[in-house]
Structure formats: C-alpha cells, structure tokens
What does this fold into?
Amino acid sequence: MDYIYHYTNIETLSLILKHQTIRFNRLDRVDDISEGSSFKTLRLQEFFFVSCWTLDSEESIPQWHMYSDSMRGVRIKLPRNLFHWQPITVPDRLKRFYTGVMSSPIPFDKIFTDKYFILPMFLNENQFENVVSYTSDYKVKKNNAISFTQEGNGVKININKPGEIASLKSPDWAFQKEFRFVLMIFPSFPNSGIDDEKWQRDIPNFIVNALYNGNGSGLDFFDIDIDPHAFESMEVTLGPHCTPGNEITVKALIDKYSPRAILKKSVLTNTIRTSKR
It folds into this structure.
C-alpha cells in the first residue's frame, strides 16, 4: 500500500478526525505566493483547489518548522487512496445525460450546484493526483499550456492537462517532495442546472468570461470525505517539540475518533534545540 504524509497543527488534526474530511485550498491561498502569480493570461489560481501532501516517509525538519506550530504539531500518515469513492447517484431527471456507472469521491449534488460546478478531473487519475514537478521554467510551462482558438463568433479556451500545470512549482520548494490532489471549480448559473437548456447553451461562454475576468466560484476551500477504512491505516507522529500536554490531547482525539490509528513520537525528539538569539 502506498502512503502519503501531511504536516499540520493539532487543531487541524482535530478537524480532520471529527469531520473525516480533507480540505482543498484555493491555489491563491497556499503559502507559495508564486503559484498564483505565475499565471499571466488567465487567473487560474481562482479556479484550482489543491490538497498538499508529501510522499517522503523520512521526517522533514523544514516541514516540521513550517507547518506544525513550531514542531508542536503532528505528521499524519494515510493511504494514498484515502477518499471515499462511491458510485455516482444521478437524479432521475438527468439520467438521459449519463450511461454506465461512474465512481466519484464527491457526491453528484456537490459536483453540480447553483453556485459552482466541479470539473470531473477525478475521473482521470493522472489529473487528480500529481507528483509536483519543480522546474525553473514552471511559469513558462504553465502559460504555454493555455491556448485560444476561434470558434464561431466566440473564443474557446484550451487548458492542456490542468492537473499537471497546477502541480508545477519553483525549485525553491523542492525540499517538500510534494504530492497533491487537484480540483478545478467553476462558477455556475444561479437558479439553473445542468439539465436546463439555457445552462447547456450558455455555460461555455459563461466559463470563458469567468476565466478571462478571474471570476471564480467564490469558494475559499472545498472538503472531500475520507474513506472510513483509511483511518484503520492512519499513523500520527508527534512533533519533535510536543509537550506532554500536546501528547495527551492528540491521544484523546485518536481514542475518540480513530482508535485503530497508531500514535508515535518523532525520531527527532530530543535532537533539536530551540535556538536563542
């Protein structure tokens, strides 16, 4: 089984355990500011949402420092296939648009709403899951993936392999050895739906205008349910500077929400001194 790792604080751990969800943050809200500012023609940072992990099983001092509340947080280990995939239940009125059975980590009524809709990138593993590529020409590659073609009286926007371009970063961040999940969320017509003729007719131009103007869905984040079975393989590592009180808190959370999870101390415990200046 493949595993992924996430460094965070104890409060976030408590929310993950209680709600059994993983949060996708909008790309212009992640810590690497250049991820959002790298798009020149279109403000795609308003439309991409990412959940950031690492594939590196070795503990990372920089990541403990940056993401775990001065090393008093935790590192979460979960199976790479951590989401709760289920057959999509399509409303009767829409069944004429769909054939066969598709599985999704997101229920149908949360994919298409009056306020937003989610591009089903999760149906393509190579777009939904990505090992981040660190390259000095990441800005060029991102913008070269976007092209425009004339279509009738309008313009069609082509975004080649969106999951991959949302996973290009500066070499400055290569220490993260990041693995991420990617969603693309667009605004939708209010008081309308996918089965509405107006929606079907006008949504292409609506999305083109939204992309040009950087008018996203209005969401800051999106949460996806974790497969309950994933918690059976969960491992929580206490940060190197966790106090006995921190350990009591984390153990209480695990006992309540994920009793089969393993709790362990960092291999770096008692090896890192807080510097004094």
Q: What stands out?
A: The longest strand covers residues 178-187. The mean pLDDT is 89. The two ends are 45 Å apart (CA to CA).
